[in-house]
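Thread: quick sanity check before group meeting

JM: Hey all, I'm pulling together slides for Thursday and realized we never actually wrote out the predicted structure for the chain we discussed last week. Dropping the sequence here so it's in one place. If anyone has concerns about the input, flag it before I start.
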Amino acid sequence: MLGLVRGVFAVARLLGPDRTSNLGGFLARTFGPFLKAHRIAMANLSAVFPQMDEAERKRIALGAWDNLGRTGADYANLGRLVDFDVSQPDVSGRCEFDGLEHFFALRDDGKPGIFFSAHLGNWELTAICAARNGLDATALFREPN
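JM (edit): ok, ran it. Output follows.
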């Protein structure tokens, strides 16, 4: 199994971030609707939005599958997704950052600090960016229930 995962990651790295993300989204949108989780999502959307038509609920559910597929596919390329470099803070890249002054203050003042992030998308990018730019970081999470 480990060999299979390594092989998938190797192919994903060869494809690059954009093509891998697109492929992950396509696969999840294609196969996700056949899973029990999709039926649960559709039932939940119907319960929460009874006035919404079926086509709109399907669009939302497929969007969730697309996001999940892209997020999973991105794992192979996480290191390539973080392109922020503190030595060139004005250079635009793949990631957009707000509040960089807080990052620099945390890195430079020697005091501990905490970043909070929702467990949505690739929340791990914060820790990768911190480590790459001289800020000691550890990622903690609570197991979902």
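AS: nice. The two ends are 26 Å apart (CA to CA). Residues 45 and 73 are 26 Å apart (CA to CA).
JM: adding both to the slides.
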